[in-house]
Amino acid sequence: MTAFQLNLFQPDVSTDLSDNLRFERGEMVNAYALSIAEILRRVLGNEYWYNFEFPLQLLCNKGEHTFLPKELWQFWVNSRLDITVMSTKLGENCRKACLLVECQSPFHDWPDAEQRDRMKANIIRPTGIPLIYARYADYPRILKFWTDSTEEVFYNPFTGDGWEALTRLLKNQCL
User: Fold this and answer.
1) How far is CA 77 from CA 2, 62, 64, 120, 137, in A?
2) Peptide bond into 55 cis (omega under 30)
3) What is the arithmetic mean of pLDDT over 47-63?
4) Order of strands, edge to edge, in the sheet holding 97-103?
5) Helix (H, G, I), strand (E, B) or coil at 132
6) Helices (H), 60-102
7) Domains in the chain, ordered, with CATH?
């Protein structure tokens, strides 16, 4: 190798920021979403991929000649879905989401958050991808799962109460 080629592998001291900034390895998913995803995996199995914080713009492609107002475009580009479920099987739904789950918290009771949730649901609805919400009804004992059609199921992960109803809901909703 020439001296020039060797120099390509040497870091440029002027761009090495390790002395000035401190970065740490961060969590890729919060514990709440991870616990909901574990429930999904127990019900739906390993024939699915479970993705976290997936961009809304990738889930809901807009038409080629569809122009969005600036505020809606910014929302569409910057929004994420807490959990997306995608089938590993080849076929019509290959590489497409078959179920979306939004993990709700008391923060979602605020009017601004409710409005964002409605906007997100309105963008998702035309795609036909089922959207399920999950929230602690009685922290940390009871989880509530529901859809826009007001179908709701309560599940206690400690006692197993509601497991059959939750299994039916998730399997019926998953495309």
Assistant:
1) 45, 11, 15, 11, 31
2) no
3) 90
4) 48-55, 80-87, 97-103, 131-138, 142-147, 152-155
5) strand
6) 70-78
7) 28-173 (3.40.1350)
Distance CA 95, CA 54 (A): 13
Interatomic CA distance for residues 155 and 25, integer angstroms: 33
**Cis amide leading into 140 (omega within 30):** yes
Q: How confident is the model at residue 141 (pLDDT cuts 50, 70, 90)?
A: confident
Q: Which two tokens stand for residue 67?
A: 């122009």
For residue 137, the model assigns a pLDDT of: 87
What is the rounded CA–CA span in Å between residue 101 and residue 85? 8
* DSSP reduced 3-state for 85: strand
Which of the 8 DSSP states describes residue 43?
A: H
Tokens read off for 12: 């440029």
Residue type, 100: L
